[in-house]
Amino acid sequence: MIVVTRTPLRVSLFGGGTDYPEYFNHFPGAVIGMAIDKYIHIAASKVISHQAFNYRLSYAKLEYCKELDEIEHPVIREVLKSFGLDDRLDISIISDVPATGSGLGSSSAFTVGFLRMVYALKGLKPTKIELAKKAIEVEREMLKENVGVQDQLHATFGGINRFDFKDTSIRITPLQMKSDVMDQLSRSMVLVHTGVSRRATTAVASQIEATRSRSIDTELSELYQLVGECVSLLEDGASDWLPRLGEMLSASWHIKRSLSKAVSNSDLDDIFNAIIGSSAYGAKLCGAGGGGFFLTLIDPDRVKELEARVAPLAVMPITIDVDGSSIVYNQSR
After folding, report:
1. What are the residues whose beta carbons fall under 8 Å from the beta carbon of 54, sequence distance 6 or more?
2. In 76, 103, 198, 273, which residue has its Cα 20 to 30 A from 291's Cα atom?
3. pLDDT tens figures, 62-91
């Protein structure tokens, strides 16, 4: 008996920071971003033969446990407890990119994928919005993580979407893009790894405090306005949409880096300047900041120049995932 899930990571284009209840409980929040073709795979099989353990977990470390409370991985432990799943399990996690500190929403992608797996083991079929909201509940309420609410939605729904937030309401709007615009966007996106990993819940703590104190309302409002501008740009598909989108991306990065001292530093600024120096249309650091990946928009013919300028840092092409979190194999009964 085995269940395997595949859940995409994401890149956020605009609006990050307005997807925290600390903001959208007072003002409208919105983000636009996309799931990408880099994934977290989770496989779980029921342990039916005699073993010295009831739970075996294989991720960045290896755990053998007899009781649920012995499990160190917080998401696995608390989700299994909350669902009352008493099956003995052997669980393996594989990530296409560094699973911690990537800025690509890996923590939320894992939570979504693990929940989808547990639902399957229980014989349940949640809707996509139910799955996303359950992941938000696990991270924000059960584990008290300093996370927003966009990553869980991107991981669940896939594609490129605008998500709007106000109080307890979430509205999902898929972008109405022409196929040639979608194709050009996919061909022009690369990720540049900074060589630095950071934990988002720590990096964003000072930003959340500034949000609560209302000291960055103006900056967050500017990021919110960029969401609508991006939607119009991508749906209209004018001839100069790509360089204009790149300029907006860099502008959002300059706003983002002013939100907290933890967002950037001189090394990250140097990487950004090297990216722009390679004639990229624009770039921004993904996620909460402090490390991870720069999302870069660039002419595909200039990627070699980019690689030379940022060497030895890794440069990774990406495209848009349209499926969202899915079960790729299910032999649970």
Report:
1. 47, 65, 66, 67, 88, 89
2. 76
3. 999 999 999 999 999 999 999 999 899 999
Taking the mean position of all CA atoms in its chain, how far away is CA 322?
A: 15
Question: Where exactly are the structural domains of the chain?
Answer: 2-175, 179-317
Which two three-digit tokens encode residue 267?
A: 């090394």
The pairing of strands 326-331 and 169-174 is unpaired
**The one-letter amino acid at 161:** N
| pLDDT for position 332 | 61
Cβ atoms of 156 and 135 closer than 8 Å: yes
Find residue 41's DSSP bridge partners: 6, 94
Cα 269 to Cα 108: distance, rounded to the nearest angstrom: 27
Q: What is the pLDDT of residues 145-158, one digit of tens each?
A: 988 999 999 999 99
- Tokens describing residue 78: 């608390």
Task: State the Cα torsion 257-262-268-273 to the nearest 10°.
Answer: 20
Given the structure tokens 């991306």, which residue do they identify? 249
Backbone angles phi, psi at 191, to 5 degrees: -110, 135
pLDDT tens readout for residues 3-12: 999 999 999 9
Task: Choose among 10, 203, 198, 201: nearest CA to 104.
Answer: 10
Which two three-digit tokens encode residue 51? 């073993």
The pLDDT of residue 201 is above 70 = no
| Among candidate residues 263, 312, 310, 307, the one with its CA nearest the CA of residue 284 | 263
Backbone φ, ψ for residue 301 (5° rounding):
-70, -15
User: Which CATH class name applies to 2-175?
Assistant: alpha beta
Residue type, 115: L
Say if domain 179-317 classifies as CATH 3.40.50.170.
no
